[in-house]
Amino acid sequence: MLQSQKNLRGILMMVLAMACFVFNDTLVKLARVTLEAGQILVIRGIVALVLLMIWLRASGMMRRLGDAAHPKLLARGGIEATIAMSFITALGVMPLADITAILMAAPLIITALSMVLFGEQIGWRRWSAVMVGFGGMLLVVRPGGTGIPLLALVLAIYSVIGVGLRDLLTRRIPMDIPSVVIALTSTLGTLLGGLILVIATGIWRPFGMAEMLYAAGAAAFVILGNLAMIEACRDVELSVVSPFRYVVIVWAVLLGILVFGEWPAPIALLGIALIGASGLYTLHRERIRHREELRAPAPDRG
Prior knowledge:
mainly alpha; globular
């Protein structure tokens, strides 16, 4: 498969992953009215773990559980745990718009790391598209810029760096390891992060069937989102695929309107337009690259 075709597959999987994660966030927000953040991570993690084990058994891949002990999978699960703890902790003491703006710097970090670590060629057009997308993100979230506690800022910055490291590490995982096994280690990592938060805070509130249903639905979307994210990051150029993370705002706006009745401000619509333009231009550049690869002469094997 040509690299441009692999990148297109990664882009589609990234868009799907972002939709799943926003559905998860919507259900978590509904459950958050009653439950603490760490408690939600634990309940969701247990349900997700059960669903994944059922999946493994039904697909006859229980014999692949040993792959979960692969050093790169263990490292990825550890990164997931620290991301969960850092993000939830920072979210509790800083505005959502501010931390969202910081997290949306992930494509920029991944682009830079891809160039430094893997030698990917990043042209000025793709750099410009990423910057335009990030500018659109700032218009959508409109961070307040008010005083942010230093600890929260450090944790938020670590979260975005952790996301970049996680996705870069995903790219280096052997292709013969099933994505569902990688998702299993991711689930175990976030579950561990939730347990650490619960132990640290010492809070466990009673909950009913509604909260369980929210958590179960969130678990299902997290699994699908993780699987799509894993596929989006495997054997692709992350500097091309990562900008499509920005589509998360489009999904968030749609669900905000449908579920919570939250209509975006005009300036937010401008930001969404910039995000869409950035993604479409990146896809346009991929089509050009695809045509160039097809036109390239075959190597002389004589």
